[in-house]
Amino acid sequence: MKKLVIGLLALFILAACTGGTSTSINGPWELVSHGSPSSQTPAAPDVETSIEFGRDGTFSGNVGCNGFGGDYEVDGETIAFGSVVSTLMFCEGPVGEQETTTLAVFAESATFVLDGGILTITSADSNSVIVLARK
User: The whole model's pTM is what?
Assistant: First the structure.
């Protein structure tokens, strides 16, 4: 009986740690859309995007043109971003627009909503929004 209880307890702990919906933004994400809250633009088609939030408080990514990264800190539903560094290749068209919008959201503190596998981040001035899907 004791072995059964310990086994069930271990199974419960394992399921709690690995299953279900994550309440953390940590991990890899892909860009779904970007733009103003009232007029989202779908991510550029056929462009690989990736934004990763590390457990160590750093993030990095590429939304089609330049690589970027920096530090972040989550407090409730707010993300405070440190200075963002980026490569400096010229980007134009839809890829350039999605990069500009994404980096604008990472410029200061932002608010976020995590709903299952969808992460919506809104800039401090509420003019720019990015929507990410968990990879």
Answer: 0.82
